[in-house]
Amino acid sequence: MTDHLFTLHGDVLAAMRRGPKPFAKLAFVLSEAEEPADTALGHFRDRILAADPGDGLIALWHRTLTTWDLTEQADWSAAPARTDARRSDTYDRLGFGADLRKALDGAVPVFKEPGPTVISKEFTSWYSRDAAAARSFYWNSYEQLLRHKGWSDEAVAGLDEASHAVVERLSDPTRTEAYGARGLVVGYVQSGKTANFTGVTAKAIDAGYRLVIVLGGTLNLLRGQTQRRLDMELIGRENILRGADPADPDALVGIDYQDDEDWPAKFVSHGGRPSALGSFDIERLTTRDDDYKSLENGIRALDIEKQARTQPLYDPANLHHAAARVMVVKKNKSVLSKLIKDLKKIGPILSEIPALIIDDESDQASVNTTDPKKWEDGKVARTAINSQISQLLTLLPRAQYVGYTATPFANVFVDPGDGEDIFPRDFLISLPRPTGYMGVQDFHDLESAEGAAEETHIRGIYEDTGDRLQEALDAFVLTGALKLYRVDRGVDEGPFRHHTMLVHESVRMAEHAALALRINSMWHRAAYTSQQGHDRLAALFASDFHRFADDTLPTPESYDELKGYVSRARQLINAGGSPVLVVNGDTERDYAQPELDFDRTPHVWKILVGGTKLSRGFTVEGLTVTYYRRTTQQADTLMQMGRWFGFRPGYRDLVRLYIGREEAMGKSRTVDLYEAFEAICRDEETFRSQLTRYATLVDGKPQVTPAQIPPLVSQHLSWLRPAARNKMFNAELVEIRSPGQWVEPTAYPTGRGDLRHNTEAWRPVLDALDPAPVTLRYSSAERDRDDSYEALLGTIGHSALISILCDLQWSAPTQFSPHLQSLVSAADAGNVIDDWLVIAPQQTSNRRTEASILGSRPLSLASRTRRRGDLFGAISEPKHRAAALRVAGALGDSGDPVVESLVRERRGVVVLYPLVEEEPRLSAGGAIDPGDVVMAFSLVAPASPHTGQENLVRFRVVDSSKGDFAVIDRDEDGA
């Protein structure tokens, strides 16, 4: 039976390509052949309220409203994307009343997860939404494929916005003057960056780019993976076959993918040759198995046909009829040399070709690492790959360069003054954490010491635990059995096709071989078919996997229910005679093992032993158990080893990381690799949050341009050399204004003399605390939290607090000095601060530790540890923040009369945390030596009514005569 309401709404929404319009008027015009009741909005509301989960009408509106919610630049709404205000504007335009709005909000909640963060120069707008919709053949095919693969409306709309943000910042391919934009897209490790640059490529070729060069890693394995993804999801069957009859075996000779089990079903189909459907074809200059060797048909392969021969190729009369060329090229000196040599033969037409260069893992091999001090006569010396990329950009003056990476610092430290290099001078886009992604927050309790991430997923290897390798092998067998158990109970088996364990202990190949032999021996002695083996697995299941199981997924109550699946898992892992694959070496043969081919092998259930080659760019499918003990002093190297980050649908709760917590480094010290990962992750998250804050335009102009990004990078990483980098960029971060923002310094000194000095500096605040504790509470239905705690309160004038802050000693002054400068100059910026409420949270448990500090009443002492060098990890407790933010005017009514009585306009808040790093030594009277206390604090400056409409950062030219620290010049009185 025809669903007239669905048909009518489909027609009406199809007429709203540019955004929402009055629904009733369009429905009236388009409803001539429909039932009259279908135009009544009350009928629509009733349908929503009674709809089943799979109702097509709800799905249609879900897709449409989500797209409008996520549109970053909407000419029909001034409200920000992803907000209730944007949705309200949508309903206003549609003419929907309160009842219908409520029903739709229930069926399609506003998607409020953050979108991409963009730091960009001002650019000339050419790629509007209308322009994109007018030419969208390949993007439409890609979008349909993603939906067929099960992508949600939110994920598709998010990718649409993120890829649009890249393409609109490229140069108009029809532009007369040649200009090559340079950009960088930052994702998370194994978070789907390939999907983004596939979307960018689709939109770019639709818009007119006719040569796409993808630099796809340094190994054939990685290059082949990227080629296959583009062929499968963008280029499609018809462009691969190029007219060959898929039913004629002779016609298929020489055409790749005939041995691929996903061909042709999972490869996108355009419904015919694109050129026969009014669009244009894509010609592949590389294939899955063949890297670039030469232009197969000679230089004619790039002799792009022109319909108007007297006009340049970039003229619209020629551009939109010409076929696009795509090649996926390995970052290899000999391969790129061949490409450059062939391009040089082509001649003047190169200057007419709008080209796009996508550099996957752009911080690997692409960055110039030569020492500027060794350049002769001031002439730039380049490393091989960097030089060849520079030559490509010179040969192709209309080429746009877009790098993709999860570890961006090497790219943003490229010299922006080198016009031939790859510094992202035009834009930097930070992609949001995707829905369903397991990242740092899932393995590290960043916000609180009471979180469950570490307890659930981390299994530390200490000196007194032994190496725990047998336990890790047992975990691998158990998790395989649990996956099989879940498949039998209706969980989608797709994500369980491969099941892997990664063992990474060393970079040395000889040690890999020895380790693989050891694991093999351990496997065969594990006795998984004996009662001893089953008892060991049963104990691990009860103590670990049953305890932390996701209660929304099938999990057996006892090991006896799992026993039969253990046998099947062991057989799959042992298939081929060995459970172990060694993946290392400098030659391609090490990566050509059939058992390692996740595309062509039905089931890869193996333990992979390797080093660097199993890190960057290589996706270990089905990775569930990781055993990691390799030390390195390179932060980006360490981050790229984090193969345990990624998507784990149906088995997130089974993921385990066995990691060294006391690994030897050098002759005399040990390092905690888990804490090292946490330190890097904190710095990257800080970098991303900084970008998010400064991405807001002020008066229509960017606060921060890409050339000003490096000073936003944390300067406390061991591998980062701030002096050389800051001087190279000739910019220094002087001031960060944070009205209404929680600011938490962590760089406190270590020497007892400096600690005693800081404690004495806080004496006026300690003296101002009222000895009677009060209870502070903040209730919020929206945040679904009810935070309360006891605290001592006091107040202090603004100038008095500034005097204290200016007198403090720090282990890394640059961390807090930009915030301090904003407080010193607050009045000049129009943000007058009258006073500060001091909150000293007090513990109430029986296990609390208290001490008198400089004669104060007993104060609670918090125990914290330094997580990297001299820096602490999280200091504050999340439950303390809401009341402080409310008093500073950054949150709404707390619902607590005590908190509300403390709110004052132009009042800030200081939350004081006296810390100890070990069991405190107290005097007979309960006092603690001031040199044994770290007087830590967090603060919130008063929220400004202009927040979000003013510049939040200020830079200045670096004075090379000064050191590496930002220096705050102030009067003698500190005011």
Question: Could you characterize the architecture of this molecule?
Answer:
- With 975 residues, the chain is α/β, with parallel strands linked by helices.
- The strands form eight sheets. The chain has an eight-stranded mixed β-sheet, with helices on both faces. Strands 20, 21, 22, 23, 26, 29 and 30 form a seven-stranded mixed β-sheet that branches. Strands 10-16-14-11-13-12 form a six-stranded parallel β-sheet.
- 34% of the residues lie in helices and 15% in strands.
- Mean pLDDT is 85; it is low at 715-731 and 956-975.
- Strand 21 and strand 22 (785-797) form a beta hairpin.
- Helix 1 packs across helix 2 and helix 18 crosses helix 20.
Question: Briefly, what is this?
Answer:
By secondary structure, the chain is an alpha/beta fold. It is built from 30 helices and 31 strands. The chain is 34% helix and 15% strand.
Topology at a glance:
Blueprint: H1 4-14, H2 23-30, H3 41-50, H4 56-70, H5 84-94, H6 98-107, E1 117-120, H7 129-134, H8 137-148, H9 153-167, E2 182-186, H10 193-207, E3 211-216, H11 220-241, E4 282-284, H12 316-319, E5 324-329, H13 333-346, E6 355-360, H14 384-395, E7 399-405, H15 409-412, E8 427-430, E9 437-438, H16 440-443, H17 453-457, E10 458-461, H18 469-487, E11 499-504, H19 509-525, H20 531-545, H21 559-573, E12 580-583, E13 605-610, E14 623-628, H22 635-640, E15 646-647, E16 656-660, E17 663-665, E18 669-671, H23 673-694, H24 722-729, E19 732-736, E20 742-743, H25 752-761, H26 763-768, E21 774-780, E22 785-797, H27 798-807, H28 817-824, E23 835-842, E24 850-851, E25 859-860, E26 862-863, E27 866-868, E28 871-872, H29 881-887, H30 897-902, E29 907-916, E30 934-940, E31 953-956
Parallel strand pairs: 2-7, 2-8, 3-5, 3-6, 4-5, 6-7, 10-16, 11-13, 11-14, 12-13, 14-16, 23-29, 26-29
Antiparallel strand pairs: 1-8, 9-15, 17-18, 19-31, 20-30, 21-22, 22-23, 24-25, 27-28, 29-30
